[in-house]
């Protein structure tokens, strides 16, 4: 995973879920992007930072058993596709629950968590995960 | 004499696909290339250019610039043959063919080699899961724990829920692949598997298990493409590339309209069929990109062999060698094997063998047109080619 600057520059988006709003059509995007794929050139310089609510519902999910090295200690984990109430759909883990308590349609909200670590003495990466919103 | 600018495959070659511990990236690549040269009866130094498909050699072997490497080790470093590497993740091989095809279509070249190679067993354990996740969005999928299998699993669960189909529909794709691969001497796997084995293997990313996932294979495939002018002058026989289509869509799965339809495949198929001036009814067999069983199911529907949610009506009875639409006579990605950058070129090798009537025990009877389908990542790029015709 590695490079500090590559991780550091995304902290606003990963820590506070800051996405973009197209100043032309009003559509919200997460993760952030500089050009609205609906408005094209009309959106240039009009994309505004906006914080997502972090609330949404599970569109699909999987329990991952074959995991990359950085996720060894979390194995197995639940990875889900979440449709935010704000509009965008995003990919993230669901934690603090059993897989049997998750189904398509389950309501979730985002929480700030450790995502992965670069080995025993490496950088720890933080960001959003999701928990059941009960 | 008025010549078209049609493009023909005049020879093919492949290394074994599988776990080739004792063989290097350059060795298998050169082996496939020289076999293709021999099969086509041309000389390496007469090539106008070489295009190499490869996805991950930099991360796996620490080796980039493999275009130059491969032409050097093919013995033509002094023959002034330009060689470039083409990268489009898991569709790199098909992308390399596409570029080579355009180079002849344009009138610039008459004789071009395409190679595809991947050496995937250099690393062990879960390191390869991280490296193979570079075909995804590293910052917004892989960073949070997304892996290629996990993303495919998200598609699978949603597909099964929305259409109310069981996992046996997915498993049938893998069972068919293994059956065909058992008749392909270069395939990674030569064993057939039962539905029961396919359904009950080790979980990888639920609902997908080991038998839903293509293996990490080493392998190299190569083809020689020629212009119609070259064919006439040299009196060669070959298989025509009748149509070609490539299309893009959103990079990450979460940005797309559907988890179980690849818009890039829908569009690439339509374009390729239009250019070839044929319909799906004309297609005798298809090689589809089933890196995960669900992607095979999705391809059947996105290409149009089955209606939405209706792949279940095909997979149990109509995709075998004698079925209505034989799928993956080579054994497909699941059982012929899945060396990322090679598999797209490998589909052309199978297409050539089938249409020349040289496919041996796995020959599809009266094969006239073949459809080849290759996908990058989770569907961000699809490349479809139609082979055959006069």
Task: Please characterize this protein's 3D structure.
The complex is a heterodimer of chains A (134) and B (390). Chain A has 134 residues and is mainly beta. Chain A has a domain of 80 residues: OB fold (Dihydrolipoamide Acetyltransferase, E2P). Helices cover 8% and strands 42% of the residues of chain A. In chain A, strand 5 and strand 6 form a beta hairpin. The model of chain A has no long low-confidence stretch (mean pLDDT 95). By secondary structure, chain B is of the alpha/beta class. Helices cover 36% and strands 18% of the residues of chain B. Chain B has 14 helices and eleven strands. The longest helix of chain B is centred in the first third of the chain and has 16 residues. Chains A and B meet through strand 4, strand 5, strand 6 and strand 8 of A and helix 5, helix 6 and strand 5 of B.
Any key phrases for this structure?
heterodimer, A: 134 residues, mainly beta, OB fold (Dihydrolipoamide Acetyltransferase, E2P), five-stranded antiparallel β-sheet, three-stranded antiparallel β-sheet, B: 390 residues, alpha/beta, Peroxisomal Thiolase, Chain A, domain 1, 2 domains, two-stranded antiparallel sheet, 14 helices, 36% helix, 18% strand
Topology, please?
The complex is a heterodimer of chains A (134) and B (390).
Chain A: H1 4-8, H2 11-16, E1 18-22, E2 28-29, E3 47-51, E4 55-64, E5 77-84, E6 89-94, E7 107-117, E8 124-132
Antiparallel strand pairs in A: 1-2, 1-3, 4-5, 4-7, 5-6, 7-8
Chain B: E1 7-14, H1 25-40, E2 49-53, H2 57-61, H3 66-73, E3 83-86, H4 92-105, E4 111-118, H5 127-132, H6 148-163, H7 168-181, H8 195-199, E5 203-206, E6 208-209, E7 219-227, H9 228-234, E8 239-248, H10 263-276, E9 285-287, H11 293-303, H12 312-315, H13 332-336, H14 340-355, E10 369-376, E11 381-388
Parallel strand pairs in B: 2-3, 2-4, 9-10
Antiparallel strand pairs in B: 1-7, 1-8, 4-7, 5-6, 8-11, 10-11
Helix pairs in contact in B: 1-3, 4-14, 7-11
